[in-house]
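Appendix B, record 7
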Amino acid sequence: WLLLSGVVTLFLGILIWAEWPASGLWVIGTFVAIDMVFSGTRLIMLALNARCLPSSGVQGLPTVQPSPTFEGRPS
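Structure tokens (predicted):
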């Protein structure tokens, strides 16, 4: 995705430079739309990968035990 994003950015940069100043009218909307498409795709891929994780958590990591409470300790 990173390579595709770079290619799209380069293509749009050349297109904007060739059509400047008329391209200033549509540039911001195009940039926002492309950013939303790539961000949405990234979030979908993250969600699909998170579904494949085991529900019991990560195996092999040590667990932290809560410290015992000391009753009668002066405050």
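Remarks on this record: The chain has two helices and no strands. The mean pLDDT is 77.
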